[in-house]
Each structure stands twice: as structure tokens, then as C-alpha cells.
């Protein structure tokens, strides 16, 4: 079975803001501030934009396939949003993986839906519900309660919003590195500063935390026994050791620096 744990990072879609609010003369930074202000007026507190007003800056993944594990960000730092989305759905088309996310039903997938709609990205395998492939009738990507997409936050909270927990806290409680003091709240500032690599690196560590929690989830479900779980954990460690990317070495060092999985 192919497993694809993924995460996205987003920024305000300032072009959408200009269209909706008729503020063509504002800079990107000022437009983002206006969008945040309007959202705060709507909610009374939160500035977090509604799903259709996000633009995807990075998509990162951990792919478990055959005997191998791969950790990467889709496309290149200079890839546009359409290419990132197309690559994501091309991967679904090619591998038909079990998608694994943290709050994917609540955020990542709705954003991907709206942005794919915006760019006209075809994704027939992703949207399949059994008309062309009967195996998707009772297990597809779009049904919240099916396993072809496993939203760990959703499942572990028994589909109750009041019982949901942050990725960072669950990862740390399980002995994994978590976000290591970083936050998605800084992504827009990093994007404006041209720090795309930093955004992609952060996104990869979120995908890694998600995958590691999934392994523990599979142990809890009985789909992995203790020995199988340890083999999967060691594969992650070995993959990180073999990488020549500093942020992944930092993740491994934080993991091995006192927290046991």
C-alpha cells in the first residue's frame, strides 16, 4: 500500500482580495492587511482567512512506497501554484495512495479544492466515487469517514471539533519533534521576504510529524505490531540520516535528543 502524508502552507490570495474589494491600487502587503481586517470584522476576533481566500505557497509530502520512504516538497521553489496543485493530484492519479493529513478535511483539502477549481486542474482519480472504479464506491477521497483519506485530527477526536488537538502538541506528547518553535503564522512574512525554501522546509517537517503520528495510529489500530512499528520508525530515522538537508538533520537531532518514540 502507498501512503502519502502531506501538508500545505498558504498565503493570502491578494489578487482575490483586489477583485472582491475593488482595491486595485494597494500593495500586496496592504491588501493582506485589509483582508485580515475584514476577516476580524466578520469574526470579532480571528484574522484567519476563509478557505477560498488562501493561496498555496508549498505542498510537502512523505511517501511510503515499496521499501522506500521519500520526504520532499512538490515542484521547485520557483514553481507557480498551479504546478504545485497539478503535481499533487498527478501523484494521486499515479499511486492512488492513502492520503494522511492533520486537519486535512478542515483546511488542506478544501483549500486544494478551491485552488484546483481556480486553475482548472483535472483530478479524476481524486474525485472518483465509484462510477468508473467500483473499489472507490465505499472508500474514496472525498467521503469524510472513508480511509482513503485519513485525517488524523478528525479521526482521533471522534469527529468532534471540541475534542480536536494541535499537531504540535500531539507530536511532542508522542516523543516526536513537533514544530520546534516554528509556526505557520510566519509564512506570509517569509514569503514576502523571498524565503520560499524556509517555507518548504517547515512544511516538510509538518508532513513528517503527521506521518510519524500515523505510524503510532497504525500501531494502535493493530495494523502494525510492535516489531513492524519499530521497523517503520527506523526507516524514517535512516532516511533522515541519509539526507543532506540541514532542516531534516535538525529534525532528527531534536527527535534523538531526549524524546523516545
TrEMBL record:
Pfam family, any one: DNA_pol_B_exo2
UniProt KW Transmembrane keyword: no
Natural source organism: Sulfurifustis variabilis
SUPFAM superfamilies listed in its UniProt record: Ribonuclease H-like
Protein name: 3'-5' exonuclease
Recorded GO MF terms: exonuclease activity; nucleic acid binding
Domain Predicted 3'-5' exonuclease PolB-like: 46-255
Keywords: Exonuclease, Hydrolase, Nuclease
InterPro entries, per the entry: 3'-5'_exonuclease_PolB-like (IPR019288), RNaseH-like_sf (IPR012337), RNaseH_sf (IPR036397)
Amino acid at each position: 500500500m502507498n501512503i502519502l502524508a502531506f501538508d500545505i502552507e498558504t498565503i493570502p490570495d491578494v489578487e482575490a482580495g483586489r477583485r472582491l474589494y475593488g482595491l486595485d491600487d494597494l500593495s500586496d502587503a496592504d491588501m493582506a492587511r485589509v483582508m485580515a481586517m475584514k476577516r476580524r470584522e466578520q469574526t470579532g476576533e480571528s484574522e484567519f482567512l476563509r478557505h477560498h481566500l488562501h493561496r498555496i505557497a508549498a505542498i510537502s509530502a512523505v511517501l511510503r512506497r515499496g521499501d522506500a520512504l521519500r520526504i520532499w516538497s512538490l515542484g521547485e521553489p520557483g514553481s507557480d501554484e498551479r504546478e504545485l496543485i497539478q503535481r499533487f493530484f498527478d501523484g494521486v492519479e499515479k499511486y492512488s495512495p492513502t492520503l494522511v493529513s492533520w486537519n486535512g478535511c478542515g483546511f488542506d483539502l478544501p483549500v486544494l479544492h478551491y485552488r484546483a477549481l481556480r486553475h482548472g486542474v483535472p483530478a479524476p482519480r481524486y474525485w472518483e466515487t465509484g462510477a468508473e472504479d467500483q473499489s472507490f464506491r465505499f472508500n474514496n477521497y472525498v467521503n469524510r469517514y472513508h480511509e482513503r483519506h485519513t485525517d488524523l485530527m478528525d479521526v482521533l477526536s471522534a469527529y468532534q471539533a471540541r475534542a480536536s488537538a494541535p499537531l504540535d502538541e500531539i507530536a511532542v506528547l508522542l516523543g516526536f519533534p513537533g514544530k520546534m518553535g516554528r509556526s505557520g503564522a510566519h509564512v506570509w512574512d517569509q514569503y514576502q521576504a523571498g524565503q520560499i525554501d524556509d517555507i518548504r522546509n517547515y512544511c516538510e517537517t509538518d508532513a513528517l510529524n503527521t506521518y510519524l503520528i500515523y505510524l503510532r495510529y497504525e500501531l494502535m489500530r493493530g495494523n502494525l505490531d510492535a516489531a513492524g512499528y519499530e521497523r517503520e520508525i527506523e526507516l524514517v530515522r535512516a532516511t533522515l540520516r541519509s539526507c543532506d538537508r540541514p532542516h531534516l538533520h535538525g529534525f532528527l537531532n531534536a527527535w534523538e535528543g531526549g524524546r523516545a518514540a
